[in-house]
Amino acid sequence: MQLLTAKLACLVALVAQLDLTNAVKHADFKTCSQSGFCKRGREFADRVAAAGPAWTPEYELAKDTISLNDGVLTATVFKTVDEKDGGKVELPLKMSFLVNSVARVQLDEAKRQKGEIELRHDSKARKERYNEAEKFALVGGTNYDVHANILNSDEDSTKIRYGWDGQQVVIDYKPFKISFIRDGEVQAVFNQRNFLTMEHWRPKRELKEGEEATVDESTWWDESFGGNTDSKPRGPESIGLDITFPGYEHVYGIPEHASGLSLKETRGGEGNYEEPYRLYNADVFEYITDSPMTLYGSIPFMQAAKNGSTVGVFWLNSAETWVDVTKSKKNPASLSNEKQSTHTHWMSETGILDVFFLPGPNAGYVYEQYSDLTGTTTLPPQFSLGYHQCRWNYVSQDDIKDVDRNFDKFDMPYDVIWLDIEYTEDKKYFTWDPSNFNDPLSMQKQLDMRDRKLVVIIDPHIKNDPNYSINKEMNSAGYAVKDKHGEKSFEGWCWPGSSNWVDGLNPNAVTWWKSLFDLKRFPSCSKNVHIWNDMNEPSVFNGPEITMPKDNLHYGNWEHRDVHNLAGMAFHNATYGGMIERDGPGNERRPFVLTRSFFAGSQRTAAMWTGDNQASWEHLAQAFPMILSQGIAGMPFAGADVGGFFGNPVPELFTRWYQSGAFYPFFRGHAHIDAKRREPYLVDEPYRSIVRDALRLRYQLLPVWYTAFQRASKDGMPVIRPHFVMFPNDPEGFGIDDQFFVGDSGLLVKPVVKEGQTETEVYLPDDEPYYDYQDYKVYKGKGWHKVHAPLEKIPLLVRGSHMVPRKDRHRRSAGLMKFDPYTLVFAINNEGKSGGLLYHDDGETFSYSTGSYIRKSYSFDGRNIISRDFDVPDERIDPAFVDSMKNVRVEKIILVGVPDDWKDKKTVTVTDKEGEWKVDLEFKKGEKGYANVATVRDPKAKVAGDWIVEL
Hints:
It is an enzyme of class 3 (hydrolase). Residues 378-708 form the Glycoside hydrolase family 31 TIM barrel domain. Belongs to the glycosyl hydrolase 31 family. Its EC number is 3.2.1.20. Residues 92-324 form the Glycoside hydrolase family 31 N-terminal domain. The chain is an alpha+beta fold. Among the domains are: 32-201 and 235-281 and 303-335, Immunoglobulin-like, CATH 2.60.40; 737-950, Golgi alpha-mannosidase II (Immunoglobulin-like, Sandwich). The chain contains 16 helices and 51 strands. Strands 6, 7, 8, 9, 10, 11, 14, 16, 19 and 20 form a 10-stranded antiparallel β-sheet that branches. The protein has a 10-stranded mixed β-sheet with strand order 42-43-47-50-49-48-51-46-45-44. Helix 6 runs parallel beside helix 7 (440-449), helix 9 packs parallel to helix 10 (560-582) and helix 12 (651-661) runs parallel beside helix 13. It is globular and about 100 Å long.
């Protein structure tokens, strides 16, 4: 029997690998018309739109049920239905007004809420609508504004004031509608178009002989796709809502999709999509670009931007969700100033309606409001911002050691090397292949000599083998996801063959899972090993849409359909927890965990990458819009497989990809098992040297990246930022997604992503000078500028008024740079000023939370360069940490764009609390079109100190 199982496992793996060599199989995944509730939702919207003013609204709020106490409004909405279904369906409404001016709208169904329904097939599933997504997604930000009050109430509506001055909400009774107002303008409207849908519970009624159905119930009670049938014991229960953003032309977010940053319309027309954006985490092999098709993760958070304003909507639902986007068309003959509006239609298969409105008023406030709710990205360990080298698969510990030595031989920095599934014994996680990894500690010790790390893959599918202790423990304790009957562990197929899945929703299973990372339980594993969670959508090779059946049961008897999109997050959260506990109390180090599947809140414990891309120019170009979308949706630690996972990139593509990858927040080279070996040192010259330069540039700018991540961990600002975030009053840049800014550094990046291109155009959003990072050529004037970009050059500009901190010593890893000196580059603006921030801590522990860090402000006011602490009370800073940095100095100060009269300056005076001294200043006249540059070499100024350089 075991031999047969092994053969089947090999067959499944072989079939999967054959599938991997082809483009995505669209027939494996549903379209909206094949997803019963999406089809019903769209058809309902079409009927309402076609009827126009003649449509009879189905939903009405009962005015006499309204009650507002301590920031919470409760009321009852009634849905009108056929008399045979009772005539009215009671829908309890709860609106929460929060202290940060966020408003939350929750709508439930009384019968399901009270359990007054019957399930089909003797199912053990819960009767309620799923209402526990907040347990996983939310961490705070839900404090009520107890001062919220009713301004007025009449026969048609109620107006409420809450939050900041000028923040109001108007609730219309019939048709039921909610309008959010800021400073006298309507910013968003829920149910403006009457698309609200809550499919109420009703028993299945068998037709009598000769009776014909009045509506199409073909997908109400069970639904088949790809040879699998979903039993749907609760019947139809989808929800839908239209959300309109009046005057907002651009909407962004709702990743993950291989599409543009500014979301396209989805109802057809030239250049638009025919399908809605789908949010249903799935294992999509070799996905296509420019598509609303679902991918590996889902964050149902959307932003709308117009000149001077940004607002957001967070749709807290972890079930399959589709989102239509359309835009109102202005009449070209009209003389009015009416702006284009964006309409969205959200449809989820199950759950309560739970929507947050985030009023902004700008992107920074929106991200802070969203972070209040779901948390910010964890501050990553510094090594994880370096370069990661991976492939499926390095075949042995000797192979790893050889790759490690070759990076040193070719003088290329890197920090992490990765192991895919073949390192295990027979695809059993927490084991090592005894033939090829018989001494894994020797491999880890060699990496540790250069302060490098190892990442190993551990997936949620556990090999179904009674002799495998982890599978035995999991099943005997009941920690696996159950089948639809709730009695047996669900069995499906993945890399090990027959497998069971850890239930990350089970708190006892989570406790057990975390214990597996203890170094006593994970043999031959050291503290410099970190974890990669793949296939956690979950991927099930023989399941519907290559995932788990929706009628499987999780902890608490919730159906998988209810929790599908958060299942991957629950798993990587458990992994992160295990890594925290691994080191023991008081010795915790920041873990690095990579996940493929994610949900709102995943940023708290993991990084992500964009999955199975291709070695093509189209996928290189697609990566940045995807990564930008992740960043503005609260998950900035994002990247794409450099070089493309599938296929073999030609040298030019390979080189341009490393230049792009140097500006991915998560920078990893990766390749499929069938791809040729392509470690960066294997490419021929001149490509090898150009790739080496890209790697070195990444390490030179690590202070910029780390400072940007520190801010992201504090207030949720994206690490790489699109134009609409940085320049909210410049709508001309709102559609740009192939160039961006890095943190607060002023670095403007426009990677080359087209074959044979040696020149590109960069959009400048203002009239400040922008300096070429390499040669200080000056670009000035709002609009598009041509930038020379031969193969060896990355179009990289620095905006005047910003300071770029960097480290110029070439090292083999980030850890070896810890005490290296800094160079500060000041790009001077039109007013002759410049400045910026630098954050530094130990890069590996959590001691920054108790003050072990420095955060310095360096400013140039036209006469002096001043170093001071940035908004940090002295008592918070740990003096022991500051003392540990006493020998870390600024070795060079570069001022770009100084005036001509600086040519006569020969020295500067440096002053700190210990005294003052003179230092030489070197002036270089810029040729035509290039900036003047002044350099102060070795000013002997301490990075952690307060000092002044008088110029």
